[in-house]
Amino acid sequence: MGNSESWNVLAAIMNLPIFWSVFAAILVVLEFWAVMRVVKSGASRESKCLWILALVFVPVISLLAWVFAGPKARAVQA
Predict the structure, then answer these.
(1) Does the model's pTM come out above 0.85?
(2) Distance (Å, rounded) from C-alpha 34 to C-alpha 16?
(3) Strand locations in the chain, DSSP E?
(4) Which of 32, 50, 74, 78 is 20 to 30 A from 67, alpha carbon to alpha carbon?
């Protein structure tokens, strides 16, 4: 498969409405999960509000930022 054929296949996939519908559904589920994790975290109220605003208004970028810099789960100590 040549390089131009690969791009043609990718372009065909990106033009499918079902692709974008599935992508949007997955994004909504991940956003909801992230917001619930922020709400249940032990962070300050201001920090929670900022993360939730970012997650709602800039979903993809803030979701990636939250994965790397957001509230982390605390390790259970025995």
Answers:
(1) no
(2) 28
(3) none
(4) 78
Q: What does each of the 78 residues of the chain score in pLDDT, given as a tens digit?
A: 556 777 777 777 777 778 778 888 998 998 898 889 888 888 889 988 998 898 889 888 888 888 888 766 554 454
- Side-chain half-sphere of 75: how many Cα atoms within 13 Å? 2
Locus of tokens 């800039």 = 58
The CA-atom distances, in angstroms, between 20 and each of 5, 23, 38, 40 are: 22, 5, 26, 30
> Both tokens of residue 39?
């709400």
Neighbour-count burial for 18-28, b at 16+ CB within 10 Å, e otherwise:
eeeeeeeeeee
